[in-house]
Amino acid sequence: MVLWIAGAGGVGREALDVALAAGVEVAGFLDDRQAGSTVRGLPVRTPAELPPGAGYLVGIADPAARARLAGLLDAAGGHPVTLAHPRAIIAPETELAPGCLVMGGAHVSSSVRLGPHSQVHYNATVGHDTRLGARVTVYPGANVSGAVRLEDDSTVGSGAVVLQGRTVGRAAFVGAAATVTRDVPPGTTVVGTPARPLPRRAPAP
Ligand SMILES: CC(C)(COP(=O)(O)OP(=O)(O)OC[C@H]1O[C@@H](n2cnc3c(N)ncnc32)[C@H](O)[C@@H]1OP(=O)(O)O)[C@@H](O)C(=O)NCCC(=O)NCCS
After folding, report:
1. Is the CATH number 3.40.50.20 carried by domain 2-80?
2. Ligand 1 centre and the CA of 194: distance in Å?
3. Mean pLDDT of the residues in the chain
4. 203 pLDDT exceeds 80?
5. Is the Cβ–Cβ distance between 158 and 139 less than 8 Å?
6. Does the C-beta of 139 come closer than 6 Å to ligand 1?
7. What are the phi and psi torsion angles at 17 (to 5°)?
8. 15: part of which helix (H) or strand (E)?
9. Domain segments of the chain: what residues?
10. Candidates 2.160.10.10, 3.90.1200.10, 3.40.50.150, 2.60.40.2250; correct CATH number of 83-193?
11. Probe residue for ligand 1, chosen from 191, 196, 200, 201 as the CB with the greatest number of ligand atoms within 8 Å
């Protein structure tokens, strides 16, 4: 299998590292902003140049950009590929939907489900029976406990903890090092221990 990685930024290059460790051949990157250049010795093309039928993985942190690119590449006849680092632990009976990325040192426990295009970054843990929706991101070193629900497009920041059974709503963002003790409403950014909504300053008059 030859893979194209959509996004030649930080997560894209981390995805390349996962592919190399897993013995997956990478043809190049797809990235409008860097098209025509080379990154890590590989060609960068525009997403429109994905060869029909090719495998792709979106290596971008932002869920909205991930959704846009995945839609575009699916429409171009690409198929999403899941990559896991050989030093990630993925328990039996855990299901990874197409397009997921699991980095080195991550531990995804028993009976977990990862929705399409979700990412578990290095040294993060995801507890038993937890459900990740589509395009969820668990950043490095975060600890998501058992039976948690991370809804579509939600993000758990570096080093954050989500207590067992809690729900992080659609497109919500848990700040770095926060401790989630209550459900997080959709679209809300929470920070701190215990996690509380980030106060937004009023726009200047
Ligand atoms: C929560 C977060 C999304 C907020 O980002 P933002 O909207 O740009 O917020 P700002 O940086 O403008 O900070 C706003 C306020 O919140 C505070 N704040 C920001 N992030 C915080 C956090 N994680 N914990 C506690 N307070 C935080 C800031 O100190 C600031 O407070 P102040 O107004 O009293 O100075 C971001 O700070 C964060 O934690 N992102 C996760 C990053 C991460 O894990 N990246 C992994 C990449 S590998």
Report:
1. yes
2. 15
3. 96
4. no
5. yes
6. yes
7. -60, -40
8. helix 10-22
9. 2-80, 83-193
10. 2.160.10.10
11. 191
Q: In this structure, what token pair is assigned to residue 74? A: 């699916």
Retrieve residue 93's tokens: 């009976």
Tokens found for residue 162: 């989500």
**Structure token digits, residue 72:** 């575009």
Please check whether residue 73 is in contact with residue 47, taking contact to mean a CB–CB distance below 8 angstroms.
yes
The pLDDT assigned to 202 comes to 66
Cα 191 to averaged position of ligand 1 atoms, centre (Å): 7
Partners of 114 in the beta sheet?
96, 132
Residue 142 Cα: closest atom of ligand 1: 44
Give pLDDT tens digits for 37-60: 999 999 999 999 999 899 999 999
CA distance 176 to 143: 11
pLDDT digits (tens, 9 = 90+) for 63-104: 999 999 999 999 999 999 999 999 999 999 999 999 999 999
Q: What is the DSSP string of 93-128?
A: T-EE-TT-EE-TT-EE-TT-EE-TT-EE-TT-EE-T
